[in-house]
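REQUEST ID: PR-0412
SUBMITTED BY: lab tech R.K.
PRIORITY: routine
TASK: structure prediction, single protein chain
INPUT:
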Amino acid sequence: MRKHIPNTLTCCNLISGCIAVTFALAQMPQLALCFIIVGAIFDFFDGFAARLLGVSSPVGAELDSLSDVVTYGVAPSAMVFVLIARLLPAALPETMMGLQTYLPFVAFVMAAFSALRLAKFNLDTRQKGVFLGLPTPANALLWAGVVVGVWGQQFAAMYGLIAIGVGLLACCWLLVSDVPMLALKFKHFGWKGNAFRYVFLLLSLVVLVAVGHLALACALIVVLYISLSLLMWALHIDIR
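STATUS: complete
OUTPUT:
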């Protein structure tokens, strides 16, 4: 019986991701974000349960990645798809209105790169104590937070679309890149070797307190995580 517990939790992650996609396409981004977070909770506990019960298996590993593609790839892409569709009528000139039917589908390129990232992660033996490339949960939280944060806000649609386009390109590259990203796993709690982890946690707390919008604060924390990791990479600082 216990060997089925981790896979059951993984399937709950998958179901949560499917529900998130449904809410995203129904233009209910807050609920979509909630179910992405619920899926992430199941994703955490399925691995924890597998290690605790000693029932890890190749099937479980493959199922985990397939579930993550939905929760961390398709769901946030669907949220961005709907946001682009909302912005296009105000952003496009009349002569280009025919494009508004097709342009929103660009958002699903992110789902493809998320799948590539997960497949690469499964085969990459170098990612011990550090992530190479942007983790899919962080990418999903970033975009879900952005969509919820700007939903209903007034801003120039054209500039919003440009920002989304640049952001999608940057994140797709980061997902499959070899840029080392800070892993928040503490081998010990001393300052040495954990300085950047403590700095990140402290700055994240400041962002949470300073920003009144929780979803937007989560997105900004991911931006902070990416920025700090890129800074350490540029300075050739070992972040293992």
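NOTES: Residues 1 and 55 are 11 Å apart (CA to CA).
REVIEWED BY: pending
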